[in-house]
Amino acid sequence: SPWAQSWRTTTDIRDVWSRVANDIGFAQDKWAPFARPGHYNDADMLVVGQIGGWTPSNLHPTKLTPDEQYTHISLWCLIASPLLIGCDMEKMDDFTLSLLTNDEVLEVNQDTLCKQAVQVGGQGDLKVYAKPLDNGSLAVGLFNTGNETVTVTANWSDLKLKGQQRVRDLWRQKDVGMFTDKFEAPVASHGVVFVRIFPNP
């Protein structure tokens, strides 16, 4: 668009899992072709922390569980959505602050390629999203929208990778090892394992 650099791709978000995940977060693939530098698909504000403060009586802690909040932030970073804080910053607790200030997680969102992740693997309740980054690495989210902890697998064949790769957990900010052919991890219900995969030099 010659008139704007960002546009909403959704109707209003609410702090309800089905809205965040099914209606919005995992329904953004169709907008990926429009994402590039200076062109940003906006999936609406982040519903973490104390939200609903447009009227004092409506202010309340987000109804999302901690795992659902990790999924929310990870997915918005992967899909290159503008990160608009929707909570009362004066009432931000340590957990919410940690969600919004993890530099390795934010780096995925702010990557200069401005590519939007799309689903490349998984099926049903299990989803694998991948986003290419400007230094040749790949940000990958292993998501579980089901009701029990399940192992989620990211196959190199789906990620268009070959050989040994270094995998780093972005929320924990630590390397988890070298892997060949695939990376898999147990993922909590409504949760995510968010990693960055680096080619082995």
Strand content: 25-35%
Our measurement of the CA-to-CA distance between the termini, rounded to an integer number of angstroms, reads 40 Å
Quaternary state, please? single chain
N to C succession of SSEs: EHEEEHHHEEEEHEEEE
Question: Number of helix segments?
Answer: 5
| Radius of gyration over all CA atoms, rounded | 17 Å
Largest sheet: 6 strands, antiparallel
Number of strands: 12
Q: Please bin the fraction of helical residues.
A: 10-25%
In which order are the strands of the major sheet placed? 5-6-7-12-9-10
Average pLDDT? 95
Principal-axis shape: globular
Low-confidence stretches: none
How does the helix and strand content classify structurally?
alpha+beta
